[in-house]
Specification:
Helix content: 25-40%
Distance between the termini: 42 Å
Largest sheet: 8 strands, antiparallel
Strand content: 25-35%
Radius of gyration: 18 Å
Length: 204
């Protein structure tokens, strides 16, 4: 124990997927940065991002009749919050960025279809809404409707901004609910950060 106490401090742990095909997957909080957060909300984050790495590989099997292949992927996540949101001011900014990285870009198409085409009306919310006022990602983006916000039901629904970059499906969850009519403004506010994320993921 004394020997351990006498050792100099070490840096934070570094996590990665050492084996192909996911060796190039980047730290999610270096893809979604504090600068990206500030672009969206105009304030800094709390400098305490929370990241997650999925253990193991998941898969999505396409429904019969779809011209899509089974997708195998790993998922990483980075949460950034404002200081105000840390203090439970629910109208303040926060974004959870999730990155589902597939073995290939062709496999990632099933993830894009799941987010931006498929809709199960039994789970609440409405069908996905295409983003038409700004260009984000490969082949456009959409908002997935997660249903009425539990903490602020009068403010509107919770939405995920979803788009594809190569073999990665990006899911940006803005903790600020808005009505459907507010989606173009939300897309415009999130577009610069989303485009920066897309650039960071290019070639991964």
């Amino acid at each position: 124990m004394l020997a351990s106490l006498n050792k100099p401090p070490t840096g934070p742990p570094s996590l990665s997927y050492p084996n192909t095909p996911y060796a190039a997957v980047a730290d999610p909080c270096t893809v979604f940065t504090g600068a990206d957060f500030q672009q969206v909300f105009g304030v800094r984050d709390d400098a305490m991002p929370h990241y997650e790495y999925q253990l193991g590989e998941w898969s999505i099997v396409p429904e019969s009749g779809l011209d899509l292949v089974t997708g195998y992927y790993v998922s990483t996540e980075c949460d950034r919050m404002s200081l105000a949101m840390d203090n439970r001011q629910t109208t303040s900014g926060g974004i959870m960025a999730q990155f589902d990285t597939y073995r290939t870009a062709d496999q990632a198409k099933i993830g894009k279809w799941t987010d931006c085409t498929y809709w199960d009306n039994s789970v609440g919310g409405g069908p996905p809404v295409p983003v038409t006022n700004v260009k984000i990602g490969d082949g456009g983006a959409c908002f997935a409707d997660l249903g009425t916000d539990e903490l602020q039901p009068a403010a509107g629904d919770d939405w995920d901004l979803d788009f594809q970059v190569g073999r990665t499906i990006v899911d940006l969850h803005n903790y600020q609910p808005v009505p459907k009519s507010g989606l173009p403004a939300m897309a415009a506010a999130m577009a610069p950060a989303a485009q920066q994320i897309a650039q960071a993921l290019a070639g991964q």
